[in-house]
């Protein structure tokens, strides 16, 4: 399933600060911790907790968030379906990167072991 230019533009404009609390809520409901979420985000993006707090305070969009990220070279190992899209078939780099993050949060919430989430 291909994304549309409108869909891609909408994702680019979403602020990370508007989504982050939902990530925390989702994983904590399933017994996971904020520290685990931070580990997953740092693995994918290179951002530590201080970096994230600054990005949240600045209300950066996902476009800026991923422009500043140092994407993990193993991110391409993240596969599967998230939000109705097969990640490996998404052609727009930014949309793919956002879905990588969504998939990792989803795997964390589903109780996967950290070494599997971090593709070790």
From TrEMBL:
InterPro entries associated with the record: SP1917_dom_sf, UCP033199
Pfam assignment, any one: DUF2200
Protein's name in the database: DUF2200 domain-containing protein
Taxonomy of the source species: Bacteria, Pseudomonadati, Bacteroidota, Cytophagia, Cytophagales
